[in-house]
Amino acid sequence: MAVSVKTGIGRFFLDLKKTPYIALFNPSTSGATAFNATLVQRAVDRWIDQKKKTISKKSGFAWGTLIHGNRILSAAVFARIGKGKLTQPIAEFQGKMSELNIPDHCEQAYSAMVGHLDANYQGKFLALLFKNPSMSKDVYEVSKSAVASVASATANGAEQADVFD
Question: What pLDDT is attached to residue 126?
Fold first, then answer.
């Protein structure tokens, strides 16, 4: 799904009664869940912006992952947080958001992505790689499992969302 969003946002709004629109914006998603997910996404985006400032070379896998792989990184963080955490009432979620350890999730997913890309995708252009669903899923799976140790401490068995299933 993250790859589809990146490659063609317009197709989501062709028919509002069919997938992929209803897969993203379905009537069972509460306003609180959507709001909480937005807060998490903003935290991930802030982490990415801060990480960009620490990278001196604006090329290579370290930089390209933040630019072209940002939604895969975000998807991995969401998968580890779990859907159950997002369904809390807004005030309760905001009070407990620091317990989610979003920066830790981001750092571990990012490190796993960069390491995996370096080991398995030498010579690939990341702008194209992250538009390829099978390669993106491969990188996602590695980054999702890399953050599992932090998530297991915070998820407490919450249902995990998987954007590629």
Answer: 93
